[in-house]
Amino acid sequence: xxxxxxxxxxxxxxxxxxxxxxxxxxxxxxxxxxxxxxxxxxxxxxxxxxxxxxxxxxxxxxxxxxxxxxxxxxxxxxxxxxxxxxxxxxxxxxxxxxxxxxxxxxxxxxxxxxxxxxxxxxxxxxxxxxxxxxxxxxxxxxxxxxxxxxxxxxxxxxxxxxxxxxxxxxxxxxxxxxxxxxxxxxxxxxxxxxxxxxxxxxxxxxxxxxxxxxxxxxxxxxxxxxxxxxxxxxxxxxxxxxxxxxxxxxxxxxxxxxxxxxxxxxxxxxxxxxxxxxxxxxxxxxxxxxxxxxxxxxxxxxxxxxxxxxxxxxxxxxxxxxxxxxxxxxxxxxxxxxxxxxxxxxxxxxxxxxxxxxxxxxxxxxxxxxxxxxxxxxxxxxxxxxxxxxxxxxxxxxxxxxxxxxxxxxxxxxxxxxxxxxxxxxxxxxxxxxxxxxxxxxxxxxxxxxxxxxxxxxxxxxxxxxxxxxxxxxxxxxxxxxxxxx
Length: 486
Known about the structure:
Helix content: 40-55%
Radius of gyration: 36 Å
Strand order of the largest sheet: 9-15-16
Strand content: 15-25%
Largest sheet: 3 strands, mixed
Shape: flat
Number of strands: 16
C-alpha cells in the first residue's frame, strides 16, 4: 500500500485486492485463479491498473504474460506494473517497447515448443507410449509406474466392440440396425464419450452412432492392441488406420479385444458384404452439383446397390446419411443421363459460350491530376525569360503540351474504371462443347457448373422410389451474364 500511496499524485487509488494463496503461477493461468480471475473476467471495468509484487508472483510463463498484455490492450489499455521490477512498468514511456519485447519472446518460445513437441512425437511414435490425443475406442490412458502414458482396455467400450463383432459375424446384422439399436438404448458413441463439458453445458446434442462409426472401429487394428496411425488417402480428406511398423515389427500398446482368428472372420464378413462396395471410392457421380434432389435441393449421388437388382440410382445425399429429406427420392441412373442430355441440348444447346477474362481497372483521376500539374509547369517554362521560351525548345515543349492535352481529353472522357470481367465469344455453342467432350462427364460437368446451370429431379408418382418415371426442372442461373467456360 505504501507503493500506491507514494503515487497518489498520479491518481492511483486501491479499488480491490486479489489474494490467491497456495496457487501455483506455473500451473494456473491468471484467468483461472479464484480471486484474480474474478477481477479479470468479471470486474475489468472497475480498475485501470493491475499492480503485482514480482513477475514470478504474477506469471511464470511468457505466453501467459503475452496473454495478459493482449488482454490489457483489448480492455481499454490497462496498465501492468511490477513493484520490484521497474523495467516492467507498463505505464512509462517504454510501454510499447516492453510489449514488443514480450511478443518477440513469446513467438520464439512458441516455435521452440512446437519443435520440442514434434521431436517428442517423432520419438514416441516408435515406442510403447501414448504421446497425444484421445485414445482409440476400446482403450483408455493411464500413467504407468515409469511415469509414461500408456493404454489399457476400457471395459465398457470393450463390451460394445465384442457385441458389434458378434452381431456382424454371427448374426449378420446390417451396420445400420446395430446403430439404431445402440442409439435407442442410449449407448454413448465415441463422439459422445469425448464430448466436452462446454458443449454439454451449451445443450449440444451428443453425436450418435452411424454405420461409418461402426466400420471404422471394426476395420482398425487398434482393437488387436496394435499402435496405429492415420495414413492419408491421396485426393481424399480422410485417411485409413494402419499399424505403426518398426524394424522389429508392430508395436503392442495394450491387450487385444479380439483374437487374431476373430479378426480374420470379421474382415472376411465385412469384405463380403455388398454394402462394403456400395459406393465407389472414385468420384463416379456424373453431373454432381448439376443434378439436384427435387425435395431438398441437395446434390444427388450415384449408388450401385446390390439389393436393387444391381441397377445404379441417383439418391439424395441426406438419405445416404440416414437423414431423409422427407421425400425418399431415388432415380434410375440411365434415365438421369438421358434427361440431362435432352434438357441441356434442347434448352441451351444453341446458346453461344464465352470465355471470361479478368481486366485490371484504371484510376484515371490520378493521371489527370499529374497531367494538369505537368502542363502548368511546362507552360511556365515557355513564358518570356523561361528556359523553353524561344527556338527549338519552345516548339518541342508546345508539341508535348498538345500531346498531353490530347491524352487528358481521352482519359477524361473514359473516366475511372474498376477491375472487372470481360466476356469474349469463343465461337462455340453448348452443343459443340457437348459433342466435343463425348465420354468426358467431368469436363461437361465443369462447363455446366461454371455456367450456373442446375437440374432438379422429382418423381411423377409421389412416394415411389427407384423410378424411371420422373420429371426435371432446369435452372439457367444468372442470365444477366453470358454462359461462360472460364
